[in-house]
Amino acid sequence: MNKVKARYFKTLENGDVRCLLCPHACLIKSNDFGLCKTRENIDGTLYAPFYGKASSIAIDPIEKKPLYHFYPGSSILSVGTVGCSFHCLFCQNYSISQYTDIHTEDINVKDLDLILKQKHINMIAFTYSEPLIWFETVLDFSKELKKINPDYKIVLVTNGYINIDPLNELLPYVDAMNIDLKSFNNSFYQKYCQGTLEPVLNVIRIASKNTHVELTTLVIPGLNDTEDEMEAITKFIASINPDIPLHISRYYPCYKMSTAATSEKTIFDLTKVAKKNIHYVYPGNVFNLDDSTTCECGNRLIIRKGFSSKIVGIKENKCTECGKNIYGFF
Predict the structure, then answer these.
(1) Do both 197 and 267 map to the same domain?
(2) Pairing of strands 4-5, 75-80
C-alpha cells in the first residue's frame, strides 16, 4: 500500500488520532482504521494507505454519473478506489465500497493524462466508491491535471459527507458534482447509512455556490418513497436554486437489503411531485424512457434516451425559443 500522510487529523496525547476529514470525526487508536477503513493511525500519525490505489477504471457516458446538464453527450474517464464513509445497507457498489481487501492497481497523474489524450476525453470522474475518503489522491491528482491542461474537467460522484475545511480546499479544482441526497430524514441516514443528514445538506449549500451540482435520490419502498418526503427534498433544493437537477432513481435489491424493487409508477409519481417545486427532474434506473430536457416554455432542449443525448434547443446556454438561461454547461 502507498502510505501518504493524511491532511486532516489531530494527534492526542495518548497517541490516539482524531480524524478531521468528515463529520464522523473518528477517534482512531494506534494501528487501527477509521470507519471508512481508509485512514490508518500509525504511531500517532494518520495515513491514507490507499493513495493512488484504484479498484476500477472505465470510460462512461457523462449521463451515467448521472450528470444531465454538464456537457451532455460527452464521454468521461471514471476512476474509483475502495472504502466509504457510509455503510449503506442498499449499496450498489458494495464490492468496492464496503471492502478494502480487494485487488487495486497503482495509478498516477501521468497514467490518467495519457488515457485522456489517447481517448480524446477532457473529463475525469472520481466515482464508484466514495471519492471524498480518497481525499489526498483526488486533491493532488486534480491539481496536477489542471496544471497539465486547464481545460480538463474534474467531477465528483459523492455522498457529500465531508467537513467544511477540506471541502473548501478541494472545491477550486472541481467542475461538477453529483451528490446523493439519500433522504430528508436524519433517522434514515443513521439507521441505513451510518451517517447524518445535516452535513450533507450543508455541503450541497456550499458546493452549489461554487460548482455545477446535480443531486440523486435513490427511492426505496417503505423507507423514503412518500410524497411528503419528496416534497421536503425538492423544497430544500428550491430554497438553494430551483434549477438544480434532481435524479429520482429506482432502487433494486442489493447488498444487505432484499426489499422488492421500487415500482416504475412510484418513480413517475414522485417525479410529478418534484416538478411542482424544481425545474429539472429525471427518473433514474427506468429504461426505454424518453428522458429529454424541456424548457419551462415547452421547447425541447436536449433529446435524451438512455445514455444518449443530443442538444437541440440550447444556444449559448439559452433556450432557443424563450431565451431563458439554462442551468449547466453545454
Answers:
(1) yes
(2) unpaired
Is there a single domain that holds both residue 107 and residue 132? yes
* Total domains present in the chain: 3
Q: Does one domain contain both 214 and 313?
A: no
d(CA 299, CA 313): 7
Which residue range forms the structural domain that includes residue 76?
53-286
**Residue 63 DSSP class:** G
In 3D, which of 287, 240, 244 has the Cα closest to residue 267?
A: 287
Task: Using the 3D structure, point to which of 271, 286, 301 is the last residue of a domain.
Answer: 286
The answer on 300 and 176 residing in a single domain is no
| Cα diameter, the chain | 66
CB 44 within 8 A of CB 9: no
Q: What is the mean pLDDT of each run of 10 residues along the chain (330 residues)?
A: 88 97 98 97 97 97 98 98 98 96 96 98 98 98 98 98 98 98 98 98 98 98 98 98 98 97 97 98 89 95 93 97 98
Residues with Cβ within 8 Å of residue 33, at least 6 apart in sequence: 39, 40, 41
| 3-state class (DSSP) for residue 208 | helix
Please indicate, yes or no, whether residues 194 and 273 belong to a single structural domain of this protein: yes
**Residue 154 and residue 188 in one domain:** yes
Q: What are phi and psi of 161, to 5 degrees?
A: -105, 90
pTM of the predicted protein model: 0.97
Among 35, 39, 58, 57, CA closest to 48 = 39
- The three-state secondary structure class of 93 is coil
Distance CA 221, CA 250 (A): 10
